[in-house]
Amino acid sequence: MEEQKITAITELDRSNYKTKIYAGGHFIYADEPEDMGGTDEGMPPAALLLASLGSCTAITIRMYADRKGIQLDSIKIHLAISREDQLDEGKTINVKLEFTGELSSEQINRLVEISEKCPIHKILSNPIRIATVLA
């Protein structure tokens, strides 16, 4: 059986830095702020990275809570990383979890454990090799 891959296509023309992103039949923009020469019509790439981690974490927690019948009303995840111009090897993504609902301390602790099992967390926590070729 052929391996299924997650794919995305990005396109950038001469529109400064406003980048079109297509994935799975969906479309979004990435961009840079105006003070960096962009049009500020989309999230900067580092924010998209944080958004990927945050949404994957929230979905993973929600799936677990629903499966286990945990009365989790809402999840809010705050994420932060250094600015793109300050990134170097070994930077930390800071994640702060907020849960609302009728939760015991054991359930909260388990939800925190589960938060680190989302696929994007696993990808970002391991060495990543990027293989670039010319199309």
Task: Please explain how this structure is put together.
- The chain is α+β, with helices and mostly antiparallel strands and 135 residues long.
- The strands form 2 sheets. A 3-stranded antiparallel beta sheet has the order 1-2-3, with no helix packed on it.
- A hairpin with a 2-residue loop joins strand 2 and strand 3.
- Helix 1 crosses helix 2.
- The protein is globular and about 55 Å long.
Major sheet strand order: 1-2-3
- Termini Cα gap: 25 Å
CATH superfamily of the largest domain: K homology (KH) domain
What is the CA-based Rg, rounded? 18 Å
Name the helicity range. Answer: 25-40%
SSE order? EEEHEEHH
Percentage of residues in strands: 15-25%
The domain count comes to 2
The CATH topology of the largest domain: GMP Synthetase, Chain A, domain 3
Highest CATH level, the class of the largest domain:
Alpha Beta
